[in-house]
Amino acid sequence: MENIELEKQELEFLVGEGYSFETIFLGKKRTWKIGKLSMGKMLRISKISIKIKVDEDALSNSDLSIQLPAQYEAVRDNASLLAEAVAVAVESKLPKWFLKWHFLNSLNSEEVMKFSLELLKFSNYQNFMTSTVLMNGNRPTKAMPIEKVV
User: Fold this and answer.
1) How far apart are CA 57 and CA 62, in angstroms?
2) CA 33 → CA 2, 23, 45, distances in Å?
3) CA 37, CA 88: separation in Å to the nearest integer?
4) If pLDDT is split at 50, 70 and 90, which confidence band does 63 have?
5) Nearest alpha-carbon partner for 132 in 142, 121, 124
6) How far is CA 133 from the centre of its chain?
7) What stretch of H or E contains 30?
8) Residue 74 and residue 57 in contact, taking contact as beta carbons nearer than 8 Å
9) What span, in angstroms and rounded, lies between the C-alpha atoms of 97 and 80?
10) Residue from 76, 69, 78 nearest 50 by CA
């Protein structure tokens, strides 16, 4: 039980600090930040995320003639969606279409991977799902009849 509490404290610390990364924006270095995500941002990011499609069978195929085209297709089909997700997540008053264009043309695959991992931490979908179950009105577990217990 102690480890779970430590993990929760670490997550709260990380989320409280936020995540930041830098790009060159209009010729100057600019720092972008994400913090705790509101339900509205989670909704917008989720709508983007469910559009992302990856052919996992082709990507894990040992035959390079199948694997390489699948990688290219994944980039072609998803790069714009990933840039859009970054644009939605960052805290900025700039238009999202402009941010999407900027991130599409300035982030590399390693930076997008790091951002994606951090975004998963900050979105905290587990707390959202727990809240959904609790507010649903249905019991998360069925009551066990007394006859079975005795």
Assistant:
1) 10
2) 31, 11, 16
3) 10
4) confident
5) 124
6) 21
7) strand 28-34
8) no
9) 11
10) 78
Work out the average pLDDT over 84-111.
93
pLDDT in tens, 7-33: 666 666 555 667 888 889 989 999 999
Type of residue at 149? V
Here the tokens at position 77 are 């089909």
What's at 124, amino acid-wise? N
- Spatial separation of the C-alpha atoms in residues 122 and 52, rounded to whole Å: 20
For residue 67, give both structure tokens: 């694997």
Residue with the two structure tokens 């390693």: 110
Nearest-CA neighbor of 23 among 101, 97, 123? 101
The label of the residue with tokens 């670490």 reads 10
